[in-house]
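hey team, just a heads up i'm posting the complex here instead of the shared drive bc the drive is being weird again. everything in one block, sequence lines first with there labels, then the predicted structure for the whole assembly after. its two chains so it's a bit long, scroll down
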Amino acid sequence: MADAPRPIDVDADYTPSTYKDAGLVASLRGRIAELADDIGRPVKLMHICGTHEHEIGRYALRDLLPPSVTVLAGPGCPVCVCDNEYINMAIQLLLLPDVIVTSFGDMLAVPGSIPLEGERRGDVRMSLLDARARGGDVRAVYSVFESRRIAEANPDKQVVFFSVGFETTVVAVAAMLKRGAPDNLSIIEANYYTPPASKLLPTLDGFDIEGFILPGHAVTITGLRVYEPLAELGIACASGGFEPVDVMASVVSLLEQVRDGAPAVTNPYQRLVKYDGNEKAKQETDEVFELAPIRWRGIAEIPASGYKLRPAYQRYSAARRFAGQLDPIALQGAEHPKGCRCAEVTLGQIRPDECGVFGKLCTPDSPYGPCMVSHEGTCRAWFVYGMHKEKLHVEAA
Amino acid sequence: MSKPPEGAVAGDRPADAAGPEDPMRTRAASRYDHVRLSHGSGGKLTLELIEDLFVAVFSNEPLRELTDAAILENPGGRIAFATDSHTVKPAFFPGGDIGRLAVAGTINDLAVMGATPLYMTSAFLLEEGYPMDDLERIVRSMRATADEAGVKIVAGDTKVLERGHGDGVFINTTGIGFLADDVQMGVAHVRPGDLVLVNGTLGDHGIAVMSRREGLDLAVDLESDVAPLNGLIEAVRLVAPNVRFMRDVTRGGLAAVANEVVHRQTFGLRVFDVAVPIDDVVDQYSEMLGIDPLLAANEGKVMIIVPPEEAEAALGAMKAHPLGREAAIIGDIVRKPEGIALVETAYGSHRVLEMPIEEQLPRIC
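-- predicted structure starts here --
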């Protein structure tokens, strides 16, 4: 088992299946075990992307790690950190006459903070789906361009795109607005920029994470330079792709940095990630959006971590367009329903199954908190892949 | 009636003003371009629709009598009886349509119980204004599928919903099959050590239909697997008389069926990830859309659990059938963990095979 890992040669003729290759995974697993032995003490690592948690669950990759190496899930789910304010705003807009709200499917079932009347399960709040049941016209879309088509097809209605996501999804929104959008289209500005949040984590009490697997999709856009300050704080960083080989290779790189006491920013996901990211995407995004403070649900308001429209594009801001019609009181509210510990789960402070409502009051078919709603949510991944259960010991006949 | 019904669409022409008859077109379809409310009112147009479309296409003795109920021969044995209502968007998709789906679905429900399906009814709920050509295509497809399975469509019903109160076309089919007294299958017969087989690639229907949904419109070179499976199932049962359990794999995919099998049982079901046949196109698109093919819908797949000594014969019989060429042994019944369906990954690690919760939708990023 102690074979040295075969180095990944980026020039070789690899296919997508290479990154699922069982032989490669086995050799990386051996390498991780060796490094864990060399280090000789427990090490906690964290990824900050919901897709990583999903893939770790799908391939049961935690089964392959030695007991001393823990990989936790951090704030990597855009739907989970989207503040109540935006969900409540979408619901209020949806209940106005002649307004169509378009949204990614993941966002539809997330409760905001407007109480759901007549619900007896506990402190249950209204989601866009609940608002739809009350007559609102909300449509699930796959991209902002589909929202534009809906706006073009409904010139007598106002179409609002619930623009939630991280630095990847905002690129498409910027590209669309820059090329011209119909006058009846506006957006709810709920795009989050993640590097400031990852820099906030080390300042929290009890923080003991020694390395971050950087979010592969996001760093494709932002590049790696923005994470150098984390390395300077003593935290190892490695870009992370999403196939089993990618995830294991990132863990190897982080453990090497920990063993050597030399935190840096490495790039195991070099087949897609460039050190400076995607310049064109960054430039277009920067033309349309500027960074401003934004509230991360249940966490804090973090400076320069939200994408807001620049003055030249503010005519597309739903918050401005409908300012007179939004009830400011309903835009506020408690962060999470009572008993929901999504905030601690999101920060990696507790495991999902340490939350009292997990799997009981809160399940994927009747979610209580956002982390159970979204496919990117940690609680949902834990529930559907059974990560909260005892390790599955198989006894064949 | 003071104004023309909403269903009357420009181009609808009365009676015999139609041009030269298309020999492939039934008279009903050539007379009105679109379904009218009166086609479901029980009057003249209803009778025309029944005689000129349904009876003409389904064409069999019990139906032609147009009695209130079909009178059928009873070949003896126990009766298997199943019903299913169908709605699919879009109604025509690569590899099939709602008609084929409606017939195959009910036939498969009967066949997996060990029954030989023989008769079926079809009830249509049509939305006013539905294109008559589309209806005819659906009806012809139903006949073709029924013929493939050796089943007769012997009774039916048609109702028309006002425009805006339906979604084009809904079809309910109810089927009757007969099964011999010695057929004994069910979860209670499943034992640790039994092997789990499927008759081919999983997820084709789900991904094919999703690719044609509004907003995706992916140019996917993929067809739905929708097909009646009674022939294949009969071939398997001939060589594997002790089949423990069969279930058609439909909505919810393999995951739903596997979870049904283990629910509250004292055994588990293990699926070997690498053994599951997945079409390359399905693999690629499910990856892109963030969908697990094990949870995606199928309409021509069956999961069969057999004792280990009959597995090779069952697999051989499947592979020899046109609907089973890519059949595979994909898993086994294990002693532990109890009551859980799980996946053994290519890396030897294990995860729970989730019970599907909702319709599979593409993820956000």
